[in-house]
């Protein structure tokens, strides 16, 4: 599996290398004038409605039937895909809920801002600094599908986000305020998955549900529900103002539009959110925002349930969602986390795998029983107490866990484990023979509630 | 090991479930073995050293397999029951372990049931009759129902075992065959058993239990979960209730 990923990345590398190399001016941080989502003021606090409208112009909601259809066509032509990790086309969701609207009730639009991926910050940055962009997007989608209501779904721990978005809502006109509902949920890692969001908002548990129909056709209490990521809706707000061709003028060859990334691992500003507005490769990103002279040993891409790739294979690959997805390394929530030179990749992996195992919703046996076992076995490998047979069997067990659950949570954990075995093959061998490396689980890989300090001396 | 940091949520023992003795499963298995053992002894003791021995073992194994299957299916439905949040015991992990253990018990008991009855010269069930319907000389219709139950159980067992990469998520769709399989097993037991009249209450009670479980599983309302979504009203406005719209829109 590793070999194929590396080969796919190598071929992806040759797709679009520009003649004059990649330039770092396609990377933008909050407040940079050439940014799209992150453009605007850089000082602390959210951009207020007045400033937002001065900068981008007032919002025009599609009101007639013709303009609503034209708006859906615009989203379709722009090619706006879900940025929460699923990369599902937004226009398809909207059309499905418009089609189902008569039969199952009036549609609802859910702004999914739960951002349950522990290291991801991009949705939080948008909600706290550019909330009106997100609200504009939600109001536009709601107008297009005929949804009277918008629900903003946040994680209970994100109090500052809650405060920021509430302040932003209070600046809107009264008729818009009455339509927007902010909810929070204290669920864990899987609570942000779209079927879990729908289940929670229907009065159930915030755990993924196997559905025969997509939420867009039958969601909250059976009503058509467009669940969309915060970044996706912010893109909608810009595409509606500047058009589909403007939207497509940024981004890579495979995925139109700019992309937000959260930097983690061994980068100098962990937690920084960066916008990729053009063709940029990983080398440019890592040298601009980290002290990397050459490729790192490995990069974790897409989140904690994502994939380790070898730094050398990814070094000259352009950062493009579609391209990376085709290479088998989806960008997921946009996390890019190179392994610091001082860290042991297996130590980091076992830490993350322990967390993922703990975050099982407890609904499927393969996940509830399998993930802790995988984590325990990997711990044995790292500690050098696993026999050679146990090292071999760990991948067999992983195969039995993957693809069985109601959601993709166990699949993500297995992907993390399998890719670690690929990329850190030499480390696995050394650890299994009892030759511990000097590396630790260092680097910025935050976990919520991580406070069991058993190794204090 | 002790010098290493362990993540907060996982205690030393909880992170190594494979290395831990499972008291819940042991207790459940013991609890199951008592009535089964009682049934076997009650039926088999007067006839030990008799030529009826294989038949008695077959009958006892069949009854035990049915009992284990009832528990297995009831527990399986409980794993997805809308009321399950109301009860904290046994913990979900224990429930899944017990479910898997009961599955193994059913396979073993059905195997014993088939082998002992085929080995019995007088039972009138050949190896062929085990896999082909209507080939048995003893109550061919009732035995055939058991053959179909066996097919369904095999499909459920194999897909559950191979779920994931080999069968994909479709194993759960096939898993729903367990309920028809149990219904077939019920008819097989009632019509093929020689002593159905004496244990009528057992069949009735277990049947009612399964039907009640299936009905509440299908039509029950989900009870208040431990961590509900808490609606927070938007500022300066009364929250609009989604449920009210849902009722209006419901058919």
How would you describe this protein?
The complex is a heterodimer of chains A (about 450) and B (about 250). Chain A is of the alpha/beta class and about 450 residues long. Chain A folds into 3 domains: about 1-15 and about 250-340, Roll (Ubiquitin-like (UB roll)), CATH 3.10.20; about 35-250, NADH-ubiquinone oxidoreductase 51kDa subunit (Rossmann fold); about 345-430, de novo design (two linked rop proteins) (Up-down Bundle), CATH 1.20.1440. Chain A has 19 helices and 10 strands. In chain A, a hairpin with a 5-residue loop joins strand 8 (about 300) and strand 9. In chain A, strands 1-7-6-10-8-9 form a 6-stranded mixed beta sheet. Helices cover about 45% and strands about 10% of the residues of chain A. By secondary structure, chain B is mainly α. Chain B has 9 helices and 1 strand, in the order H-H-H-H-H-H-H-H-E-H. In chain B, helix 1 (about 25-45) runs antiparallel to helix 2 (about 55-80) and helix 2 (about 55-80) runs antiparallel to helix 3. Chain B is globular, with a radius of gyration of 23 Å. Chain B has one domain (about 20-225). Chain B has helices at about 25-45, 55-80, 90-120, 125-130, 140-160, 170-175, 180-190, 200-220, 240-250, and one strand at about 230. Chain B is about 60% helix and about 0% strand. The chains are: A alpha/beta (about 450), B mainly alpha (about 250). The interface between A and B is large, with 73 and 56 residues.
């Amino acid at each position: 599996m590793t070999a194929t990923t590396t080969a796919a990345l190598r071929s992806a590398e040759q797709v679009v290398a520009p003649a004059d190399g990649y330039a770092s001016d396609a990377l933008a941080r909050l407040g940079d004038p050439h940014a799209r989502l992150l453009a605007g003021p850089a000082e602390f606090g959210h951009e207020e409605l007045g400033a937002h409208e001065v900068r981008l112009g007032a919002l025009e909601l599609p009101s007639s039937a013709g303009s609503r259809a034209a708006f859906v066509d615009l989203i379709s032509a722009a090619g706006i895909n879900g940025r929460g990790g699923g990369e599902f086309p937004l226009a398809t969701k909207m059309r499905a809920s418009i089609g189902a609207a008569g039969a199952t009730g009036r549609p609802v639009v859910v702004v999914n801002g739960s951002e349950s991926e522990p290291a991801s910050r991009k949705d939080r940055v948008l909600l706290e600094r550019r909330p009106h962009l997100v609200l504009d997007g939600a109001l536009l989608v709601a107008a297009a599908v005929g949804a009277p209501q918008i629900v903003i779904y946040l994680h209970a721990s994100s109090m500052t986000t809650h405060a920021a978005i509430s302040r932003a809502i209070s600046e809107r006109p009264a008729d818009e305020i009455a339509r927007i509902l902010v909810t929070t949920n204290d669920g864990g890692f899987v609570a942000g998955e779209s079927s879990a969001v729908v289940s929670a908002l229907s009065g159930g548990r915030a755990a993924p549900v196997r559905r025969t129909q997509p939420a867009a056709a039958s969601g909250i209490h059976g009503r058509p529900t467009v669940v969309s990521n915060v970044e996706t809706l912010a893109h909608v707000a810009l595409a509606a103002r500047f058009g589909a061709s403007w939207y497509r003028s940024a981004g890579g060859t495979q995925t139109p539009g700019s992309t937000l990334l959260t930097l983690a691992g061994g980068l100098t500003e962990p937690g920084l959110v960066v916008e990729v507005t053009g063709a940029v490769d990983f080398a440019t990103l890592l040298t601009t925002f980290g002290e990397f002279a050459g490729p790192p040993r490995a990069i974790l891409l897409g989140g904690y349930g994502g994939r380790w790739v070898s730094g050398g294979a990814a070094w000259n690959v352009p950062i493009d969602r579609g391209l990376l997805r085709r290479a088998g390394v989806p960008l997921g929530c946009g996390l890019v986390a190179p392994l610091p030179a001082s860290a042991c990749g297996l130590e980091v992996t076992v830490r993350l795998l322990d967390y993922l195992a703990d975050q099982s919703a407890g609904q499927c046996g393969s996940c509830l029983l399998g993930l802790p076992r995988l984590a325990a076995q990997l711990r044995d490998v790292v500690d050098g107490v696993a026999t050679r047979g146990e090292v071999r069997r760990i991948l067999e067990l992983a195969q039995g866990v993957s693809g069985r659950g109601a959601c993709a949570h166990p699949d993500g954990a297995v992907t993390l484990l399998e890719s670690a075995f690929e990329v850190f093959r030499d480390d696995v061998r050394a650890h299994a023979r009892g030759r511990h490396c000097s590396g630790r689980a260092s680097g910025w890989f935050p976990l919520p509630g991580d406070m069991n300090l058993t190794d204090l001396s | 090991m002790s010098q290493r940091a362990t993540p907060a949520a996982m205690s030393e023992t909880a992170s190594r479930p494979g290395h831990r003795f499972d008291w819940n499963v042991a207790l459940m298995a013991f609890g199951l073995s008592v009535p089964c053992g009682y049934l076997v002894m009650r039926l088999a003791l007067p006839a030990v050293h008799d030529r009826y021995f294989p038949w008695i073992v077959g009958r006892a194994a069949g009854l035990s397999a049915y009992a284990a299957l009832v528990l297995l299916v009831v527990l399986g439905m409980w794993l997805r029951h809308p009321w399950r949040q109301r009860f904290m015991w046994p913990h979900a992990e224990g429930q899944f372990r017990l479910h898997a253990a009961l599955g193994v018990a059913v396979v073993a008991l059905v195997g014993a049931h088939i082998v002992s009855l085929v080995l019995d010269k007088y039972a009138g069930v050949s190896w062929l009759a085990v896999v082909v319907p209507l080939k048995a000389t003893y109550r061919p219709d009732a035995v055939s129902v058991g053959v179909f139950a066996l097919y369904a159980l095999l499909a459920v067992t194999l897909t559950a075992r191979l779920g994931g990469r080999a069968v994909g998520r479709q194993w759960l769709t096939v898993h729903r065959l367990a309920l028809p399989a149990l219904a077939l097993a019920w008819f097989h037991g009632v019509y093929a058993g020689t002593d159905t009249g004496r244990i009528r209450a057992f069949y009735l009670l277990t049947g009612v239990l399964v039907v009640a479980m299936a009905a509440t599983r299908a039509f029950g309302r989900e009870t208040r979960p431990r961590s509900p979504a808490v609606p927070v009203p938007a500022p300066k406005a009364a929250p609009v209730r989604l449920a009210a719209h849902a009722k209006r829109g419901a058919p």
